[in-house]
Write a structure and sequence with these properties.
The chain is built from eleven helices and 20 strands. By secondary structure, it is α/β, with parallel strands linked by helices.
Amino acid sequence: MTITPESRDFAQDLLHFIDASPSPWHVVNTSVQRLSAQGFKPLKETDTWQLHAGERYFVSRGGASIIAFTVGKLCLLETGFRIVGAHTDSPGLRLKPQAAFDGDGLVRIGVEVYGGPILATFADRDLSIAGRVIVRTSDGFETKLIKFDDALMRLPNLAIHMNREVNDKGLRLDKQKELPLIFGESEAGFEAEQQFLAHIAKALKVEVHHILSFELNVFDTQKGTFWGANQEFITDSQLDNLASCHAALTALLATENSTTTNVCAFFDHEEVGSESASGASGSFLNDIILRIANCMDLNEEDKQRALAQSFFISADMAHAYHPNHPSAYEPCHHALVNKGVVIKSNANQRYSTNAETAAHFITLCERAGVPYQQYAHRTDLGCGSTIGPIVAASLGIASVDVGSPMWAMHSIRESAGVLDHHYMARVITTFFNT
């Protein structure tokens, strides 16, 4: 196996992207920085839009979802929309609105479980918090992003002397009683909540009473890195699904003078079902498509005609075959790391792939010179889902679910292949340019 310098550099850029984006709000912020640097113009949903062929734009909703697009030079009736979707959120721990409490001389932080993380992987890690804080201003309020780079909290394991069966039965954590994180020692004269808020206020250079509310999630401060005998693998948090966001965003940024209208839609709340104003089940993508069509002087029937020849790639990570656990996988469907992008299928529509859309994606892989693999879940195991079926049902367009193979999905420390990430970007680039 040869890891080219181009593939290695691309994987390193992914790790930088993830490490700069420890919350969904930071994902959008990092994406905006990259889009703006390449001449994409910001739009507001509250404004009247005037779009022009050949121009590039982006719009965000809720602070944690973003849609970026290029307006093609050919008529939408001829090309339809070419859309790639991914999600900005990852499973983990979120702070409760009144998070801090005292006990036994320590301040601890109450958290909620967001989505389906592997909770045991959060133990004994150097944890911190990131997200958004809403602060009072003279004329209302504003949003500030916050990210503590140093380790701020910890979830220490119980010693094996008091949990003798941990190696036989695994680490089991009571979500209410055993997940609160240790933040620091109690300070005399300060309530726990005030002590915690003072830490945030100091970082933001505001007064504690200016803090109105916040949405903060826990993240691992350890940076992403390469590993393996030939450094052929990468590991980081949030590979699911920031790897897909990065691949699609990079492909869109590299697409210039496109004849087709290309769209990247990155949604929040996928890990908890997508049922929100900024999730894939909301109206965000449909609203933006309608506004693009209106600016191109398409009536309602023309919009439906354009959608009828559109295509949606739902890019979300895939389960790589784990050689230590062969019984967890369907025979003949072992997706191997560094062996190509994965086409995901499920007869019960947990994925949106069908025979025609799979064939479409296979031809894209062939044009891009990218290997591909097929994946189906074991019949006796519940299959996860993603945004593919949601968007396909909402817009009524052809859709395929794909992803790069990875190990330890939903762990705080996930792993994937250097080559596969580059493969995914190459096939999406081909999609946007053919």
